[in-house]
Recover the amino acids of this structure.
């Protein structure tokens, strides 16, 4: 602030007179006291020694506060240094003007120019007189009036001194801070320091009440932080930094009594304090209740909007010119398709034209009655169906509209709702068509459609009843239960009255007698469709179908089935008998030939014996193929599910065929994968049969070279609890022409079917294999090249065993020395069996019948029984059951081996279930008999241990 001013020669006459009196100091003193111009006198030390009343009125200070004090005490402290330097310049004579900023209690500020003259007092000491350059009104009265109005104002008012805050802002901006808001938000402690520089210097009582404190409480430098008015402080500082002179802000406030309030504060920079400091006058209004009301109103409005926008139905209101004044989301999105365009103030036609401009077909409501006008003209509510195309899609609305009035009863327009019934309309149309189709169907149907009134015990039915159901002449009431068989009628009434079948309904067959006394079979279906309050049926509907012809067909079919089963049973019996009749002589032939093999023979004799043995085995193969094929063609093969050793079965087949292969200089190789488990669940007999056919064919059609058998587990392609196996048989034989590969699995097919064919056989083997593979849940394929060899691969499904069952052993390894009872009615077979046993080192005892065998068991002790199944008087199974039941004490657990021509799986399973310990197929092979006897423990007991083994069959 510049306190010095250049000399100004343009003073008034009064000032010129004072200047002329100045050299005579003693005279000037009384003059200064009498004039109305503010004046004062400084001594040579710069202390105030005189001031007149106008000066005291100007500064609003008593004389006692000023006499003997520096001139700087009459100005705000912020300007004191400048005033002190200006006073020193005046006393030094370098300046004779002084611009003195003075202020009073009213809060106004005024810079007053004083002219100074030098003189001497009565003692002759130098002094300096100063007087204002113009007369001033009495500011004291104005200040009192301002203060009175300020404190009596009903609006909360307070004055804040922001001088120090402004200086701090200037310093902060000098340091490079320009975005004060961001700075204060990042440094809240700095904002608190700045808040202390904003001090309330005055406040009226209303403001004190606003903050719930007294006037002295509001003078606390920490007031704004205590009140939590950080937002107001920040906005005020930003206003000062921006150079603005006013502020309007809504700020939260925590009053001194702890109450939370919202304030609307209007603040303005007070003019006239540019030289004496900076003050802001503020007015605060408590808007807490207003905000609460507005928030409640906003919440209610949001709730209404949310409710309407979440409605499935459309909701709207229009003014009397059919312009929208409200529209919920459903109508905006589904009918108007307004997107982001404003809906209010627009009409349906506006949005229809908009859709057409966008290229959409829109015809909604154009062919319907103008329902808005109808409601406005009649001033009554109405319900309408309006439809048309909206964006090319057909839409039908169920519309309800009413007049809209205000509280004074003035008509504002219409209010309406619309529900999309497009699907409902389609369903109604479909229902009508369905009803028509049902009517046509019933009319075209030959069934009797009926309903039963449980309460009134009445039947009603369609016009299919006459004649058959005795329709009365009076109405569509029928009396079918009176024409029914009494037992059927009783069951029918029970079903009708008790709601049998529940929601699924009931069905039954009954017999009805027509007018001519002929009985008809009817298939009756019914369902309860109505119940009373206690859940009892009241109405049943249903239909009757005449199934007399079907019943006749069922009877004929049942008779045909019985005849077929009888024929099939006879066929099975015939096959079993044929198997027995053919195998029994072969058993004797092969048995004797095997016994001769160890006799001392010449080379010619041995050659003849070999030819006879091979011919017998070839004959046995042909017989087996024919019997198997015949059996499989008439009955689906059945399969056992017993534990067995797959690798052991494969080795058995390999060893059995090894001799014939060796004679042809053929090497049989095996490849068993490590993932093949020790035991599987399945039918070992069928598995061996597949192996015998495949490996036997490979050996037969290979002149020399190699036959390879591979067995692998397909873990990744197996369901849980099972294991799919891959069996492959490869040979280096003659191969098969490509044009014949598709027929190799057909029955009786042979590559060389002429009279010159080189390889014997029936051509049934591969057909049997295919049937067995499919029955075991597998597939089979063949790959062959003529002259290079053949590969046949098949997959087989077996059950998996996680661990070896307890009690399963590898055999008793008894060796020789068993005493064996041979029960066989055929003399040749009895001789062959006993000679084989002797040759193996055992001790046979023979019996020609079951009765004779029982007698011997009572007289002697045996280790096991080797017994034929098919014998006269008492067969082998009956004998076994008698032994197991204790007919001969002490032999209930004796092992019994069946010597039988019955070799089918289901037959063998039946044998095992009736007490047989194991079985040997006729004709009997000596090596197989030897292996079977290794399973027999000595002592005449061990049947239970044998059947606990995984593979109870020795072959």
């Amino acid at each position: 602030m510049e306190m010095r001013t250049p000399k100004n020669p343009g003073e008034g006459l009064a000032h010129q007179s004072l200047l002329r009196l100045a050299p005579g100091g003693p005279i000037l003193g009384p003059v200064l006291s009498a004039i109305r111009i503010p004046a004062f006198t400084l001594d040579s030390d710069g202390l105030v020694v005189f001031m007149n009343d106008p000066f005291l009125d100007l500064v609003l200070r008593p004389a006692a506060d000023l006499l003997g004090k520096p001139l700087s005490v009459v100005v705000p402290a912020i300007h004191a240094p400048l005033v002190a330097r200006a006073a020193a310049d005046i006393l030094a004579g370098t300046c004779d003007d002084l611009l003195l900023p003075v202020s009073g209690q009213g809060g106004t500020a005024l810079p007053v120019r004083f002219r100074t003259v030098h003189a001497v007092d009565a003692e002759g000491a130098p002094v300096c007189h100063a007087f204002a350059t113009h007369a001033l009104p009495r500011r004291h009265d104005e200040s009192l009036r301002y203060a009175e109005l300020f404190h009596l104002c009903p609006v909360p008012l307070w004055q804040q001194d922001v001088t120090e805050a402004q200086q701090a802002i200037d310093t902060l901006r000098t340091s490079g801070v320009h975005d004060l808001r961001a700075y204060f938000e990042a440094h809240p402690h700095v904002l608190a320091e700045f808040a202390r520089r904003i001090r309330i210097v005055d406040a009226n009582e209303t403001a004190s009440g606003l903050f719930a404190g007294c006037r002295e409480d509001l003078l606390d430098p920490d007031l704004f932080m205590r009140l939590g008015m950080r937002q107001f402080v920040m906005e005020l500082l930003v206003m000062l930094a921006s150079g603005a002179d006013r502020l309007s802000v809504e700020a939260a406030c925590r009053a001194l009594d702890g109450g939370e309030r919202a304030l609307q504060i209007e603040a303005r920079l007070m003019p006239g304090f540019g030289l004496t400091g900076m003050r802001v006058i503020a007015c605060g209004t408590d808007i807490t209740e207003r905000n609460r009301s507005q928030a409640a109103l906003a919440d209610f409005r949001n709730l209404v909007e949310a409710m309407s926008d979440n409605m499935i139905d459309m909701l709207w209101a229009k003014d009397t010119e059919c312009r929208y004044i409200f529209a919920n989301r459903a109508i905006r999105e589904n009918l108007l398709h307004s997107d982001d365009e404003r809906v209010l103030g627009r009409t349906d036609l506006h949005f229809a034209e908009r859709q057409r401009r966008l290229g959409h077909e829109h015809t909604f409501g154009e062919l319907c009655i103008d329902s808005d006008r109808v409601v406005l003209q009649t001033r009554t509510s109405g319900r309408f169906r309006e439809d048309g195309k909206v964006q090319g899609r057909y839409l039908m609305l169920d519309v309800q509209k009413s007049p809209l009035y205000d509280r004074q009863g003035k008509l504002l327009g219409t209010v309406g709702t619309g529900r999309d019934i497009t699907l409902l309309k389609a369903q109604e149309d479909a229902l009508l068509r369905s009803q028509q189709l049902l009517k046509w169907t019933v009319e075209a149907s030959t069934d009797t459609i009926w309903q039963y009134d449980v309460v009134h015990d009445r039947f009603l039915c369609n016009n299919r009843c006459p004649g058959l159901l005795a329709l009365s002449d009076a109405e569509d009431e029928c009396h079918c239960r009176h024409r029914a068989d009494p037992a059927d009628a009783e069951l029918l009434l029970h079903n009708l009255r008790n709601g049998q079948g529940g929601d699924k309904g009931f069905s039954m067959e009954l017999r009805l007698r027509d007018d001519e006394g002929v009985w008809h079979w009817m298939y009756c279906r019914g369902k309860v469709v109505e119940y009373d309050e206690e859940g009892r049926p009241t109405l049943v509907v249903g239909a009757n179908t005449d199934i007399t012809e079907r019943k006749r067909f069922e009877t004929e079919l049942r008779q045909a089935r019985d005849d077929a089963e009888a024929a099939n049973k006879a066929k099975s019996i015939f096959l079993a008998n044929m198997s027995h009749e053919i195998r029994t002589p072969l058993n004797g032939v092969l048995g004797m030939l095997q016994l001769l093999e160890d006799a001392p023979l010449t080379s010619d004799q041995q050659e003849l014996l070999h030819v006879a043995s091979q011919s017998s085995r070839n004959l046995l193969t042909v017989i087996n193929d024919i019997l198997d094929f015949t059996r499989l063609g008439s009955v689906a093969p059945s399969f056992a599910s017993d534990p067995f050793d797959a690798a052991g079965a494969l080795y058995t087949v390999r060893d059995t065929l090894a001799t014939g292969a060796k004679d042809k200089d053929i090497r049989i190789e095996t490849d068993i994968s490590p993932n093949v488990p020790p035991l599987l669940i399945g039918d070992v007999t069928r598995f061996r049969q597949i192996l015998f056919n495949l490996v036997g064919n490979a050996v037969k059609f290979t002149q020399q070279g190699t036959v390879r058998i591979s067995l692998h587990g397909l873990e990744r392609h197996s369901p849980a609890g099972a294991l799919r196996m891959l069996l492959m048989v490869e040979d280096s034989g003659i191969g098969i022409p490509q044009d014949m590969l598709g027929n190799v699995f057909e029955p009786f097919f042979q590559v060389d079917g002429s009279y010159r064919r080189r390889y014997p056989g029936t051509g049934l083997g591969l057909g049997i294999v295919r049937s067995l593979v499919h029955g075991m849940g597998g597939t089979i394929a063949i790959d062959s090249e003529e002259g290079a060899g053949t590969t046949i691969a098949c997959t087989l499904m077996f059950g998996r065993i996680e661990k070896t069952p307890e009690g399963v052993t590898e055999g008793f390894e008894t060796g020789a020395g068993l005493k064996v009872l041979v029960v066989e009615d055929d003399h040749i077979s009895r001789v062959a069996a006993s000679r084989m046993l002797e040759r193996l080192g055992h001790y046979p005892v023979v019996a020609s019948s079951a009765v004779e065998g029982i007698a011997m068991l009572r007289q002697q002790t045996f280790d096991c029984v080797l017994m034929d199944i098919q014998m006269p008087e008492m067969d082998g199974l009956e004998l076994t059951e008698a032994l197991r039941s204790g007919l001969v004490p002490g032999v209930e657990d004796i092992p019994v081996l069946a010597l039988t021509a019955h070799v089918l799986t289901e037959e063998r399973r039946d044998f095992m279930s009736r007490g047989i310990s194991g079985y040997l197929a006729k004709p009997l092979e000596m090596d197989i008999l030897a292996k079977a006897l290794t399973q027999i423990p000595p002592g005449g007991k061990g049947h239970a241990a044998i059947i606990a083994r995984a593979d109870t069959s020795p072959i």
Remarks:
- The first helix runs from residue 13 to 21.
- The domain at 819-947 is CATH 3.40.50.2300 (Rossmann fold).
